[in-house]
Amino acid sequence: MQLLRRGHKFEYRDHRGVDQQGVVDVWVSKAGDRAVLVLRGLPHPEAQAQADKALLTLTHTCLPYLLRPDARLGVLVLRPRGDEDAKARALVLPLSA
């Protein structure tokens, strides 16, 4: 996997109609047939719904320009740490793999 974009900032409208900001890292395989998105900076409450809306926005804005149309997509959502000693946790979106 190769890093295609790092720290790409984007805006999206969440499931409650509030404008939010997030950051995405885009990784692709050498052949371009697989891609992994790592979403960061999304609000922690209702992370699944936030991530779904963020992915929908990315699908209509920048991903068509970065990825092949037939690329298999995996999505990881990094949750913020609760404190300094906690491990970072990730949420894997269903239907993204």
Topology of this structure?
Blueprint lengths: L1 E12 L5 E10 L5 E7 L6 H14 L2 H4 L5 E8 L9 E4 L5
Parallel strand pairs: 3-4
Antiparallel strand pairs: 1-2, 2-3, 4-5
Describe this protein's structure:
With 97 residues, the protein is α+β, with helices and mostly antiparallel strands. It contains 2 helices and 5 strands, in the order E-E-E-H-H-E-E. The chain has helices at 47-60, 63-66, and strands spanning 2-13, 19-28, 34-40, 72-79, 89-92. A 5-stranded mixed β-sheet has the order 1-2-3-4-5. Strand 2 and strand 3 form a beta hairpin. It is globular and about 35 Å long. The two termini are 15 Å apart. The relative contact order is 0.21.
Q: Beta fraction of the residues?
A: 35-45%
Helix fraction by DSSP (H/I, runs of at least 4): 10-25%
Strand order of the largest sheet: 1-2-3-4-5
Net shape: globular
What is the N-to-C order of secondary-structure elements (H for helix, E for strand)? EEEHHEE
| Rg | 13 Å
Question: Average pLDDT, to the nearest integer?
Answer: 84
Number of strands: 5
Biggest beta sheet attributes: 5 strands, mixed
Distance separating the two termini: 15 Å
Low-confidence stretches: none
Count of helices? Answer: 2
What's a concise summary of this model?
This protein is of the alpha+beta class and 97 residues long. The protein has helices at 47-60, 63-66; strands at 2-13, 19-28, 34-40, 72-79, 89-92. It is built from two helices and five strands, in the order E-E-E-H-H-E-E.
